[in-house]
Amino acid sequence: MADICERTSAQICERKELELTSKQAAEILYVILKEIIIVLIMSQKKIILVPVDLSGNSESAIRYAAELSNAPDTKIYLFHSAVLPEFYVAELSDYNLYHKELKSAVKKICDASLSFLNAMKESYFAETSKVICRVIIAKNIYNGILDFAEELMPDLIIMGDGEKSDKIKIGANTERVLRLTDLPLLIVKKSANASKIKKVIFASDFSEDSVKVFSQVNSFLKEKNASIRLLYINTKSKFEEYETVKSRIEKFKKNFSADFSIVIRAGKNTEESIVRYANSINADLISIGIKKKKGLSLFFTDRVSESVISLSDIPVLAVKNPG
Predict the structure, then answer these.
(1) Strand locations in the chain, DSSP E?
(2) Ranked by mean pLDDT, which of 164-173, 210-219, 293-302 comes out on top?
(3) Highest mean pLDDT: which of 32-41, 129-138, 157-166, 175-184?
(4) Residue 5 pLDDT class (50, 70, 90 cuts)
(5) CA distance 21 to 44
(6) Which residue has the higher pLDDT, 155 or 11?
(7) CATH number of the 197-320 domain
(8) CA atoms of 310 and 171, how far apart (whole Å)
(9) DSSP assignment of 86-155, as one string?
Protein backbone atom coordinates (compact mmCIF):
# COMPACT_ATOMS: atom_id res chain seq x y z
CA MET A 1 0.00 0.00 0.00
CA ALA A 2 2.85 2.39 0.82
CA ASP A 3 4.32 2.05 -2.71
CA ILE A 4 0.93 2.72 -4.30
CA CYS A 5 0.48 5.78 -2.08
CA GLU A 6 3.93 7.08 -3.05
CA ARG A 7 3.21 6.83 -6.80
CA THR A 8 -0.33 8.19 -6.54
CA SER A 9 0.69 11.10 -4.31
CA ALA A 10 3.39 12.11 -6.78
CA GLN A 11 0.73 12.35 -9.47
CA ILE A 12 -1.50 14.37 -7.13
CA CYS A 13 1.30 16.83 -6.47
CA GLU A 14 2.02 17.27 -10.19
CA ARG A 15 -1.60 17.65 -11.27
CA LYS A 16 -2.86 19.78 -8.38
CA GLU A 17 0.39 21.74 -7.90
CA LEU A 18 0.10 21.30 -4.16
CA GLU A 19 2.87 22.62 -1.96
CA LEU A 20 3.61 19.14 -0.62
CA THR A 21 6.44 16.71 -1.14
CA SER A 22 5.59 13.29 -2.52
CA LYS A 23 6.41 11.79 0.86
CA GLN A 24 4.01 14.13 2.69
CA ALA A 25 1.26 13.47 0.17
CA ALA A 26 1.90 9.73 0.46
CA GLU A 27 1.44 9.89 4.21
CA ILE A 28 -1.85 11.77 3.83
CA LEU A 29 -3.10 9.35 1.20
CA TYR A 30 -2.06 6.38 3.33
CA VAL A 31 -4.17 7.69 6.22
CA ILE A 32 -7.16 8.21 3.90
CA LEU A 33 -6.88 4.71 2.43
CA LYS A 34 -6.50 3.22 5.90
CA GLU A 35 -9.73 4.93 7.02
CA ILE A 36 -11.50 3.61 3.91
CA ILE A 37 -10.34 0.08 4.69
CA ILE A 38 -11.59 0.40 8.29
CA VAL A 39 -15.01 1.55 7.03
CA LEU A 40 -15.15 -1.40 4.61
CA ILE A 41 -14.27 -3.83 7.39
CA MET A 42 -16.87 -2.33 9.71
CA SER A 43 -19.52 -2.64 6.99
CA GLN A 44 -18.97 -6.38 6.71
CA LYS A 45 -20.89 -9.00 8.66
CA LYS A 46 -21.25 -8.48 12.39
CA ILE A 47 -19.94 -11.49 14.29
CA ILE A 48 -21.27 -12.37 17.74
CA LEU A 49 -19.71 -15.09 19.89
CA VAL A 50 -21.92 -16.83 22.46
CA PRO A 51 -20.03 -19.21 24.79
CA VAL A 52 -22.52 -21.84 25.94
CA ASP A 53 -22.54 -23.54 29.32
CA LEU A 54 -24.22 -26.92 28.89
CA SER A 55 -25.68 -26.71 32.40
CA GLY A 56 -28.26 -24.18 31.18
CA ASN A 57 -26.76 -20.97 32.60
CA SER A 58 -26.35 -19.54 29.07
CA GLU A 59 -30.00 -19.63 28.05
CA SER A 60 -30.56 -15.89 28.61
CA ALA A 61 -27.48 -15.08 26.50
CA ILE A 62 -28.65 -17.41 23.71
CA ARG A 63 -32.12 -15.81 23.69
CA TYR A 64 -30.57 -12.35 23.51
CA ALA A 65 -28.27 -13.38 20.65
CA ALA A 66 -31.24 -14.92 18.82
CA GLU A 67 -32.96 -11.53 18.76
CA LEU A 68 -29.79 -9.80 17.56
CA SER A 69 -29.42 -12.42 14.82
CA ASN A 70 -32.44 -10.94 13.06
CA ALA A 71 -30.35 -7.91 12.09
CA PRO A 72 -28.96 -7.97 8.53
CA ASP A 73 -25.48 -9.42 7.97
CA THR A 74 -25.19 -10.86 11.49
CA LYS A 75 -23.46 -14.16 12.11
CA ILE A 76 -23.74 -15.96 15.46
CA TYR A 77 -21.24 -18.50 16.80
CA LEU A 78 -22.63 -20.84 19.46
CA PHE A 79 -19.48 -22.11 21.11
CA HIS A 80 -18.66 -24.64 23.80
CA SER A 81 -15.27 -25.07 25.44
CA ALA A 82 -15.05 -28.61 26.81
CA VAL A 83 -12.41 -29.69 29.31
CA LEU A 84 -10.10 -32.56 28.39
CA PRO A 85 -10.96 -35.63 30.51
CA GLU A 86 -8.33 -36.94 32.92
CA PHE A 87 -6.87 -40.41 32.42
CA TYR A 88 -4.19 -42.09 34.50
CA VAL A 89 -1.72 -44.63 33.19
CA ALA A 90 -0.28 -47.01 35.79
CA GLU A 91 1.81 -49.24 33.50
CA LEU A 92 3.81 -48.49 30.36
CA SER A 93 1.92 -51.24 28.55
CA ASP A 94 -1.31 -49.34 29.12
CA TYR A 95 -0.38 -46.42 26.82
CA ASN A 96 -1.99 -47.89 23.70
CA LEU A 97 -5.21 -48.41 25.60
CA TYR A 98 -4.89 -44.90 27.08
CA HIS A 99 -4.72 -43.23 23.66
CA LYS A 100 -7.63 -45.28 22.37
CA GLU A 101 -9.81 -44.49 25.39
CA LEU A 102 -8.84 -40.81 25.36
CA LYS A 103 -9.67 -40.46 21.67
CA SER A 104 -13.00 -42.18 22.23
CA ALA A 105 -13.82 -39.99 25.23
CA VAL A 106 -12.96 -36.78 23.35
CA LYS A 107 -15.18 -37.82 20.44
CA LYS A 108 -18.09 -38.55 22.77
CA ILE A 109 -17.69 -35.16 24.49
CA CYS A 110 -17.50 -33.28 21.18
CA ASP A 111 -20.45 -35.16 19.66
CA ALA A 112 -22.64 -34.62 22.73
CA SER A 113 -21.68 -30.93 22.98
CA LEU A 114 -22.28 -30.31 19.28
CA SER A 115 -25.65 -32.07 19.51
CA PHE A 116 -26.59 -29.77 22.41
CA LEU A 117 -25.55 -26.63 20.49
CA ASN A 118 -27.51 -27.71 17.42
CA ALA A 119 -30.56 -28.27 19.62
CA MET A 120 -30.17 -24.71 20.96
CA LYS A 121 -29.85 -23.44 17.41
CA GLU A 122 -33.07 -25.15 16.34
CA SER A 123 -34.95 -24.05 19.47
CA TYR A 124 -34.05 -20.37 19.56
CA PHE A 125 -32.95 -19.22 16.11
CA ALA A 126 -34.97 -18.64 12.96
CA GLU A 127 -34.12 -20.79 9.96
CA THR A 128 -32.91 -17.67 8.14
CA SER A 129 -30.41 -16.84 10.91
CA LYS A 130 -26.75 -17.50 10.21
CA VAL A 131 -25.63 -19.63 13.15
CA ILE A 132 -22.47 -21.73 13.38
CA CYS A 133 -21.91 -24.28 16.16
CA ARG A 134 -18.36 -24.96 17.31
CA VAL A 135 -16.83 -27.16 20.02
CA ILE A 136 -13.19 -27.31 21.10
CA ILE A 137 -11.33 -29.22 23.78
CA ALA A 138 -9.32 -26.95 26.10
CA LYS A 139 -7.34 -27.23 29.32
CA ASN A 140 -10.01 -25.08 31.00
CA ILE A 141 -13.22 -23.37 29.94
CA TYR A 142 -12.23 -19.72 30.06
CA ASN A 143 -8.95 -20.27 28.20
CA GLY A 144 -10.87 -22.07 25.48
CA ILE A 145 -13.23 -19.10 25.19
CA LEU A 146 -10.40 -16.57 25.11
CA ASP A 147 -8.37 -18.53 22.55
CA PHE A 148 -11.34 -18.97 20.21
CA ALA A 149 -12.33 -15.30 20.61
CA GLU A 150 -8.78 -14.24 19.72
CA GLU A 151 -8.97 -16.40 16.58
CA LEU A 152 -12.47 -15.30 15.58
CA MET A 153 -12.22 -11.61 16.64
CA PRO A 154 -15.99 -11.11 17.01
CA ASP A 155 -17.60 -7.70 17.34
CA LEU A 156 -19.22 -8.81 20.58
CA ILE A 157 -19.15 -11.64 23.13
CA ILE A 158 -22.42 -12.43 24.92
CA MET A 159 -22.32 -14.52 28.09
CA GLY A 160 -24.71 -15.49 30.87
CA ASP A 161 -23.62 -15.06 34.47
CA GLY A 162 -22.38 -18.65 34.71
CA GLU A 163 -22.36 -20.90 37.75
CA LYS A 164 -22.70 -18.92 40.95
CA SER A 165 -23.67 -19.26 44.61
CA ASP A 166 -25.46 -17.13 47.20
CA LYS A 167 -22.24 -15.21 47.87
CA ILE A 168 -20.77 -15.23 44.35
CA LYS A 169 -23.07 -13.43 41.90
CA ILE A 170 -21.01 -13.91 38.74
CA GLY A 171 -19.49 -17.20 37.57
CA ALA A 172 -15.73 -17.72 37.57
CA ASN A 173 -15.48 -18.20 33.79
CA THR A 174 -17.53 -15.09 33.06
CA GLU A 175 -15.41 -13.12 35.53
CA ARG A 176 -12.13 -14.29 33.95
CA VAL A 177 -13.28 -13.55 30.42
CA LEU A 178 -14.40 -10.11 31.62
CA ARG A 179 -10.97 -9.39 33.07
CA LEU A 180 -8.84 -10.84 30.28
CA THR A 181 -10.56 -10.12 26.96
CA ASP A 182 -10.06 -6.90 25.01
CA LEU A 183 -13.37 -7.41 23.19
CA PRO A 184 -16.73 -5.89 24.17
CA LEU A 185 -18.51 -8.28 26.54
CA LEU A 186 -22.25 -8.27 27.18
CA ILE A 187 -23.46 -10.05 30.31
CA VAL A 188 -27.11 -11.13 30.18
CA LYS A 189 -28.38 -12.71 33.39
CA LYS A 190 -32.12 -12.81 32.85
CA SER A 191 -34.45 -12.78 29.89
CA ALA A 192 -34.21 -9.37 28.18
CA ASN A 193 -35.54 -7.88 24.96
CA ALA A 194 -32.61 -7.18 22.65
CA SER A 195 -34.82 -6.00 19.81
CA LYS A 196 -36.30 -3.13 21.84
CA ILE A 197 -33.38 -1.34 23.46
CA LYS A 198 -34.77 2.13 24.18
CA LYS A 199 -33.23 3.28 27.47
CA VAL A 200 -29.46 2.99 27.76
CA ILE A 201 -27.17 4.16 30.54
CA PHE A 202 -23.55 5.04 29.89
CA ALA A 203 -21.90 5.41 33.30
CA SER A 204 -18.52 7.10 33.26
CA ASP A 205 -16.33 9.92 34.56
CA PHE A 206 -16.35 11.34 30.99
CA SER A 207 -12.60 11.78 30.73
CA GLU A 208 -10.82 11.55 27.36
CA ASP A 209 -10.71 7.74 27.63
CA SER A 210 -14.50 7.61 27.80
CA VAL A 211 -14.75 8.78 24.18
CA LYS A 212 -12.90 5.64 23.03
CA VAL A 213 -15.12 3.44 25.19
CA PHE A 214 -18.40 4.95 24.04
CA SER A 215 -17.35 4.63 20.39
CA GLN A 216 -17.70 0.86 20.82
CA VAL A 217 -20.94 1.18 22.78
CA ASN A 218 -22.27 3.42 20.02
CA SER A 219 -21.38 0.79 17.44
CA PHE A 220 -23.51 -1.76 19.31
CA LEU A 221 -26.41 0.71 19.50
CA LYS A 222 -26.33 1.52 15.80
CA GLU A 223 -29.84 1.75 14.29
CA LYS A 224 -31.51 1.07 17.66
CA ASN A 225 -32.78 4.67 18.15
CA ALA A 226 -32.09 4.47 21.87
CA SER A 227 -32.07 7.39 24.29
CA ILE A 228 -28.82 7.46 26.23
CA ARG A 229 -28.44 8.69 29.80
CA LEU A 230 -24.92 9.95 30.43
CA LEU A 231 -24.62 9.04 34.11
CA TYR A 232 -22.07 10.43 36.55
CA ILE A 233 -22.10 9.33 40.20
CA ASN A 234 -20.71 11.98 42.52
CA THR A 235 -19.39 10.31 45.67
CA LYS A 236 -18.08 11.89 48.84
CA SER A 237 -14.59 10.50 48.29
CA LYS A 238 -14.40 11.85 44.70
CA PHE A 239 -16.70 14.83 44.89
CA GLU A 240 -16.71 17.40 42.08
CA GLU A 241 -18.74 20.55 41.58
CA TYR A 242 -21.88 20.11 39.43
CA GLU A 243 -20.80 22.67 36.81
CA THR A 244 -17.36 21.04 36.48
CA VAL A 245 -18.87 17.64 35.78
CA LYS A 246 -21.53 19.03 33.45
CA SER A 247 -18.92 20.92 31.43
CA ARG A 248 -16.90 17.74 30.99
CA ILE A 249 -19.96 15.79 29.85
CA GLU A 250 -20.94 18.56 27.40
CA LYS A 251 -17.45 18.32 25.90
CA PHE A 252 -17.85 14.52 25.63
CA LYS A 253 -21.21 14.93 23.84
CA LYS A 254 -19.62 16.92 21.01
CA ASN A 255 -17.86 13.75 19.79
CA PHE A 256 -21.12 11.98 18.94
CA SER A 257 -24.54 12.51 17.43
CA ALA A 258 -27.10 10.76 19.63
CA ASP A 259 -30.14 11.28 21.84
CA PHE A 260 -28.27 12.20 25.03
CA SER A 261 -29.46 13.40 28.41
CA ILE A 262 -27.18 14.26 31.31
CA VAL A 263 -27.74 12.69 34.73
CA ILE A 264 -25.54 13.66 37.69
CA ARG A 265 -26.43 11.93 40.94
CA ALA A 266 -24.92 11.82 44.40
CA GLY A 267 -24.31 8.44 45.99
CA LYS A 268 -22.40 6.74 48.78
CA ASN A 269 -21.40 3.83 46.57
CA THR A 270 -20.72 4.11 42.82
CA GLU A 271 -21.83 0.66 41.70
CA GLU A 272 -24.97 0.53 43.86
CA SER A 273 -25.96 4.00 42.68
CA ILE A 274 -25.58 2.99 39.02
CA VAL A 275 -27.80 -0.07 39.43
CA ARG A 276 -30.34 1.79 41.58
CA TYR A 277 -30.74 4.49 38.93
CA ALA A 278 -30.95 1.91 36.13
CA ASN A 279 -33.74 0.09 37.97
CA SER A 280 -35.58 3.35 38.68
CA ILE A 281 -35.96 4.14 34.96
CA ASN A 282 -36.37 0.50 33.84
CA ALA A 283 -33.25 0.75 31.69
CA ASP A 284 -32.72 -1.81 28.92
CA LEU A 285 -28.92 -1.72 29.05
CA ILE A 286 -26.09 -0.47 31.27
CA SER A 287 -22.80 0.27 29.51
CA ILE A 288 -19.52 0.90 31.31
CA GLY A 289 -15.80 1.04 30.68
CA ILE A 290 -13.56 -1.46 32.40
CA LYS A 291 -10.00 -0.86 33.45
CA LYS A 292 -7.38 -3.39 32.44
CA LYS A 293 -4.99 -4.70 35.06
CA LYS A 294 -1.98 -2.95 33.54
CA GLY A 295 -2.81 0.59 34.49
CA LEU A 296 -5.06 2.21 31.90
CA SER A 297 -6.68 5.29 33.37
CA LEU A 298 -10.39 4.58 33.19
CA PHE A 299 -12.57 5.75 36.07
CA PHE A 300 -14.23 2.40 36.63
CA THR A 301 -11.97 -0.28 38.02
CA ASP A 302 -12.52 -3.99 37.52
CA ARG A 303 -14.03 -4.07 41.01
CA VAL A 304 -16.69 -1.50 40.15
CA SER A 305 -17.53 -3.09 36.79
CA GLU A 306 -17.76 -6.56 38.31
CA SER A 307 -19.90 -5.20 41.14
CA VAL A 308 -22.33 -3.57 38.69
CA ILE A 309 -22.62 -6.87 36.83
CA SER A 310 -23.13 -8.76 40.08
CA LEU A 311 -25.81 -6.37 41.34
CA SER A 312 -27.70 -5.78 38.11
CA ASP A 313 -30.33 -7.99 36.49
CA ILE A 314 -30.28 -5.57 33.54
CA PRO A 315 -27.84 -6.56 30.74
CA VAL A 316 -24.43 -4.92 31.17
CA LEU A 317 -22.10 -4.10 28.28
CA ALA A 318 -18.49 -3.86 29.48
CA VAL A 319 -15.96 -2.30 27.12
CA LYS A 320 -12.22 -2.18 27.60
CA ASN A 321 -10.33 0.99 26.83
CA PRO A 322 -8.65 0.39 23.43
CA GLY A 323 -6.06 3.13 23.96
Answers:
(1) 46-51, 74-83, 130-138, 156-159, 185-187, 199-203, 227-234, 259-266, 285-290, 316-320
(2) 210-219
(3) 129-138
(4) very low
(5) 35
(6) 155
(7) 3.40.50.620
(8) 10
(9) P----SGGGHHHHHHHHHHHHHHHHHHHHHHHHHHHHHHS-TTSEEEEEEEEESSHHHHHHHHHHHH--S
CATH 3.40.50.620 fits domain 46-187: yes
**pTM, rounded to two decimals:** 0.79
**Can you tell me the distance from the alpha carbon of 242 to that of 311, in angstroms, rounded to the nearest whole number?**
27
Round to whole Å and give the CA distance between 169 and 90: 41
What's the distance, CA 226 to chain centroid? 18
Q: Which amino acid belongs to residue 320?
A: K
8 Å CB contact between 60 and 189: yes
Longest CA span, the chain: 82
List, by residue range, all CATH 3.40.50.620 domains of the chain: 46-187, 197-320
Q: How far apart are CA 240 and CA 162, in angstroms?
A: 37
